[in-house]
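Cont'd.
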Amino acid sequence: MDKLLEIRDLHTSFFTHVGEVKAVRGVNIDLYQGEAIGIVGESGCGKSVTSLSIMGLVPSPGKVIKGEIYFNGEDLLKKSEKEMQKIRGNKIAMIFQDPMTSLNPVYTIGDQLMEPLRTHKNMDKNAAREKAIGLLKEVRIPDPERRLKQYPHEFSGGMRQRVMIAMALSCQPELIIADEPTTALDVTIQAQILELMKELKEKFNTSIMLITHDLGIVADLCSRIVVMYAGIIVEEGSVRDIFYNPKHPYTWGLLKSIPKVNMTSKERLVPIEGQPPDLLKPPEGCPFMPRCRYAMRICEQQCPGLYSVSGRHKAACWLLDPRAPAVEWDREGVSFK
Amino acid sequence: MGRYIIHRVISMVLTIFFIVTITFFLMHAIPGGPFTREKPLPEAIIKALNEKYKLDDPVWKQYLDYWKDLFRGDLGPSFQLKHRSVNELISLGFPITARLGLVSIIFTLLLGVPMGIISALRQGKWEDYTTMFLATLGVTIPSFVLATVLIYLFGVVWKVFPVMSSKLTRPIEYVMPVVALSGYSLSFIARLVRSSMLDVIKQDYIRTARAKGLSELKVIYKHALKNAVIPVVTYLGPLAAGLLTGSFVIEKLFSIPGMGGYFVNSVSNRDYTMIMGSTIFYSVLLVIMNFIVDIVYVLVDPRIKLVNVKEG
C-alpha cells in the first residue's frame, strides 16, 4: 500500500489580538491509499484545524507555521493558491458538519453539484447534468431529475448531507475529509449516512479522514484511530488497539463516556472532569495532566513522547515508561460492537 | 404567484384611493384657498374664479367631480399657471427629473455595491478605511451642502463642470447634480453591502465553495455576492422612488426644471389640482416600485415565496 497522505510535525496557530493560540502543535499522521482513519477528540483539540490545514483553508487569522503535508509525495504547504485550487474538490474533497448551512441557499442543488465537475473536469453543461443525476442516484436521493432543480431549503438535513457527499464524490477524489459529517443529524439519519459513506468508500476505494468527537461512529467506518488532545496526538492505533487495549487515560475517559446499549437507568455516564488547557499558553508538561487521575510529578514537568505499544499502536503517556507504576485499564464501562 | 399579484394590485388600488381621499380633504380643511393673497383680490374676481373652478360647490361634490375627471385621466387645470393643465406640467417636468433620477440610480448601484464589497474584502486595510470614511461623510453631509460645495469648487473656482445644468442635454451637465443627489444613497448602499458581505463571507457555504476548488474571484462573485445583495434589494424600492421623483433642493440649486419644483410650489401656492396631481403621481410611482422590488426579491432569493397571508 502506498502512502497517500503524510503529515509531518504540523503546527498551526491563530494569531489573535490577545496572542498566539497554538491550535495544532506538532501532529504526525500517515494515511494509506484506500484506508479510512478516524481523528477523535473533544471540541477545540485541533482536529478540524488539522483538516483545514490540509486543504489550505485555515481561516484568518490562522496560519500553518511549521511542518509538511505530503499528498502523493508532494508538499501541499509549498503549493501556490492556484495549484491548491486544482487539488481542492478534485483530489481532496471535504464534507462539513452542518448540512443546513453548508449549501448556498440561493443556488439550486444541481448548480452547486455541477460546479466542481465543470471546474475540474471541464465538462459541458449537459455532461455535468448527466453526471450530477448519476451522483444523486449514487447517494440514493429519489427522483434526481426533479431534485436537481430544487434549492437547499427544499431538502431535509439528511438529504442535504447526501448532496454534500455527492458533491465530494463528484470528481472521484483520492481523499475525502469528513469533518463531523453526522453530528448535526439525528441518530437514525446518522446511521444511514455512515452506512452510505462506508459503501461508497468500498465502491470507489477512496481514502477517508473522518473527524469526530464520537468514538462510537469511528469503529464502523475506520480501520485506524488517532486520538487528539490539546493540539497533539495522545494515542493512535488500529480500532482494535484503541477499543480493546487503550493506553492513554484520555482514551479511557472517552471510552467510558460512550453510552452502552445494556445500560440501566441507574447507571450514569462517566464524563471526563475539567476543561482542556488554554492553548494561548499551552502547559510545559502533559496537557491532560490536570484532568488525569494517574498524574505523576513528571507529567507536570515534561510532555511525554509517543511510546510504541505494539506495531503501529502508540500512546503519549508517562505511564508507559518502564519506570512508571503499573496502571491497568478496566474494561468495565465500554461496549463493543 | 398569480393570485398574489391580483391581491397586490387590489391593495395598490386601495392605497391610492385612500391617499387621494385623505389628501383631498386635508387640503380643503386648511383655511384659505388658491386665490388667497396678502393683498386681497377684488370680491368680484374671486367670485368669478371660484365659480369657474367650481370651488363654491360643497366639498363632497368637488371630491366626486375630481374622481370623475381622474377616471378620464384628467388631473385638471393648474390654478396658478394659467392655460396649463396638471397633466401637461407633469409630462414637462417628470422626464427631466426621471432622467436625472435614473442616472443617479445607476451611479449609486455601480459605485455603491463595489465600494461595499471592496471594503468588506479588505476589512481593516486602507481600502476599507478610505471607503468607509467617504461613506460616513456621504451619509452625514446634507445634499444641499454637498451641492453648494460642488458648485463652488468645480463650477466657480475650477470651472470643470457647468453650473447651470438646466435641461440636462449634455452628459457633462449630469455630473454635479447626480453626485449631489446620490451622495446619501450611495454611501448608505456601500455601508449596507459592506456589512452584509462581512456576514456572508463567514458563512459555511462560502467555505464549501472554497473547498470545491473554485477561484477566490468565483467564490466572491458567484457565491457571496448574490447573498450579500439581498438586503440591498429591500432598499431599492424607496431608493428608486426617491431618486426618480428627484429633490426640490437639488433641482433648485442646479436650476433644473423638474417635478420637485412644481410639487413644492404647488403646496405653498395652494394649487389644489397640482397638489393632488403630484401626490397621486408620486404615490403611484412608489407603490409600483415597491411591487417591482417584491418581485425582484423572489428572483434573487428562492427561499421567499409570494403567497397571501391567509394561505400561509
